[in-house]
Specification:
Elements lengths: L7 H15 L4 E4 L1 H7 L8 E4 L3 H7 L3 E5 L4 E6 L2 E7 L1 E6 L5 E6 L3 H5 L10 E2 L5 E2 L4 H7 L1 E2 L5 H7 L2 H13 L2 E2 L1 H10 L8 H12 L4 H10 L13 H10 L9 H11 L5 H7 L4 H19 L4 H7 L1 H13 L6 H10 L12 H8 L5 H15 L7 H12 L2 H4 L1
Parallel strand pairs: 2-5, 10-11
Antiparallel strand pairs: 1-2, 1-8, 3-4, 4-5, 6-7, 8-9
Helix pairs in contact: 6-8, 7-9, 7-10, 10-11, 12-14, 13-14, 14-16, 15-16, 16-17
C-alpha cells in the first residue's frame, strides 16, 4: 500500500529518513502514527526506527541527545524540531511484566516489529510513502479488529499494560478485539497488579475520555480486568449500571467528570480514599469530590447563587450534562443567569480585607474576625450587601453591636 499524501508532520521529518539512508542504513516511520495516517486521523508523535545503532546515528547527525540510549533511543535535533530515533531491537527477560531486562539491537525490521503489541501498531512507513505491513495490520484495520502480534499471551506477559492499552484502543478506535487476543487479555488480567497504578490510571482515563468509551468499558468488564483494578473488584454490576444509565451518545467533558460518574456508579463512600489508591493529585481529588457534592445537591433542589460562587459554573454545567445524559431535567440557563448576577466570583474581589477591619475597629486576628469576614462574603454573594467599603463598614458596625455575634 502506498499513501497518496503525507501529513505535514511526516513531511518535515522526511530529511531524517533520507539522511540515514544516504549513510547506507534503513529508516522508517513506525507505530501508532502510521496507523492514524492510514485512518486519516490526526497524528501526535513521529516515531522513527532504524537499523543504525545509536553510535552510528550520533555520527550522522551533529546535534543529538542521549535520552534512552540503553534502549536504543537517540533524540535528533533537526531544523528546530526534535525526533526520537530508535534502533531496531529485540527484548527479553521481562522481570516485572513491564520492562525488559535485556535489549538487543538488530538490523532486521521484521524482528523489531515482531515485539509490537497489536498488528495495527506494527506498521512501518518508508520515505517513498509505502506502508510495510508484515502482520496483517491493514486487513485488521479494514475489519476494525484489534489483534495481538504473534502469540497474544506472550505479548501480555511481556508487558501487562498492553491489556489496558488494548482496551483503550477499543475505546478510541471503536474496534472489536479478536477472539484469541480477548482470551489472552482475560487469562493475563491478573498481571496488571504488577503494573504501577499511575500507568494504569492513564490508560483507564484515556479509555473513559475516548469516543467509544462504552465499548471499551464493556470489554474491560468482559475481560475481568476490573477484578484487578484498585477499588473495583466487587463492582461488576455497578460498572454495568454506569453503561446502562447514560445515553449511548454521551461523551465525558473532563476526566474529573468521568471519574466522578464512575465513583457515583460504584457507590464509593470515601472519595479521597478511593482516588488516593489511584495516586491522583489533591487537585484532581478535590474537583471530583466537588462534582459529586454538587450532583447530590442538585438531586435535592435547584442551584443557588451560593452554589455557583462556591463551586464555579463549570462544575455546575458538568453536573447538568450528566443529568441530561441520564434523562433528568436540566436548567443550564439558570446557571448562566446566577453567574452573571454574582457581584463577586472570588473573596479576593471584596474591597475590604481583614487587615482593614483590624485597623478600623481594633479587632484581633482569630475566629471572630474569620467569622465576620465569612458573613461579609456570604451577604455579598447573596445580594444582600453591596461590595463597597462604606456599606461593608456599616454592616460590620451593626454586627459588632449585636450581642449575639459575641455569644
Amino acid at each position: 500500500m502506498k499513501l497518496k499524501t503525507l501529513p505535514s508532520e511526516f513531511q518535515k521529518a522526511l530529511p531524517i529518513l533520507s539522511r540515514i539512508k544516504e549513510y547506507g542504513y534503513e529508516a522508517y516511520f513506525v507505530g501508532g502514527s502510521v496507523r492514524d495516517v492510514i485512518l486519516d486521523h490526526p497524528i501526535h508523535d513521529v516515531d522513527i526506527a532504524t537499523n543504525a545503532y545509536p553510535e552510528e546515528i550520533k555520527k550522522i547527525f551533529p546535534r543529538t541527545v542521549d535520552i534512552g540510549i540503553e534502549h536504543g533511543t537517540v533524540l535528533v535535533l533537526f531544523d528546530e524540531e526534535e525526533y526520537e530515533v530508535t534502533t531496531f531491537r529485540t527484548e527479553e527477560g521481562y522481570v516485572d511484566f513491564r520492562r525488559p531486562s535485556q535489549v538487543h539491537f538488530v538490523r532486521s525490521l521484521k524482528e523489531d516489529l515482531k515485539r509490537r503489541d497489536f498488528t495495527v501498531n506494527a506498521f512501518a512507513l518508508n520515505n517513498e510513502s509505502e506502508v510495510i505491513d508484515l502482520f496483517g495490520g491493514l486487513q485488521d484495520l479494514e475489519k476494525k479488529t484489534l489483534r495481538a502480534v504473534g502469540d497474544a499471551s506472550e505479548r501480555f506477559y511481556e508487558d501487562a499494560l498492553r491489556i489496558m492499552r488494548g482496551l483503550r484502543f477499543v475505546s478510541s478506535l471503536g474496534f472489536t478485539i479478536e477472539e484469541k487476543t480477548l482470551s489472552a487479555m482475560k487469562a493475563n488480567a491478573n498481571l496488571l497488579e504488577n503494573i504501577s497504578v499511575e500507568r494504569v490510571f492513564i490508560e483507564l482515563d484515556k479509555l473513559l475520555m475516548s469516543s467509544f468509551w462504552q465499548k471499551g468499558l464493556k470489554q474491560l468488564i468482559l475481560c475481568d480486568v476490573y477484578l484487578f483494578l484498585p477499588g473495583l473488584k466487587n463492582c461488576k454490576k455497578n460498572l454495568q449500571l454506569m453503561l446502562d444509565e447514560l445515553a449511548p451518545s454521551f461523551q465525558f467533558e473532563t476526566s474529573e467528570q468521568a471519574w466522578a460518574n464512575l465513583l457515583m456508579s460504584i457507590q464509593v463512600k470515601s472519595i479521597k480514599g478511593f482516588l488516593k489508591k489511584w495516586k491522583t493529585s489533591n487537585e484532581f481529588q478535590k474537583t471530583v469530590e466537588n462534582l459529586i457534592t454538587v450532583y447530590h445537591i442538585r438531586l435535592e433542589r435547584s442551584f443557588s447563587s451560593q452554589d455557583v460562587y462556591r463551586f464555579g459554573k463549570d462544575i455546575l454545567y458538568q453536573v447538568e450534562s450528566l443529568r441530561e445524559a441520564k434523562g433528568l431535567t436540566v436548567n443550564q440557563e439558570r446557571i448562566s443567569k446566577l453567574d452573571s448576577e454574582l457581584i463577586i466570583h472570588n473573596k479576593s474581589e471584596i474591597v475590604v480585607n481583614g487587615r482593614q477591619l483590624m485597623s478600623q475597629y481594633h479587632l484581633s486576628p482569630g475566629p471572630k474576625l474569620g467569622m465576620l469576614l465569612n458573613e461579609i462574603e456570604t451577604e455579598i454573594v447573596g445580594g444582600n450587601l453591596e461590595n463597597c467599603q462604606e456599606k461593608i463598614f456599616r454592616f460590620v458596625e451593626r454586627r459588632l453591636v449585636d450581642e449575639s455575634f459575641f455569644s
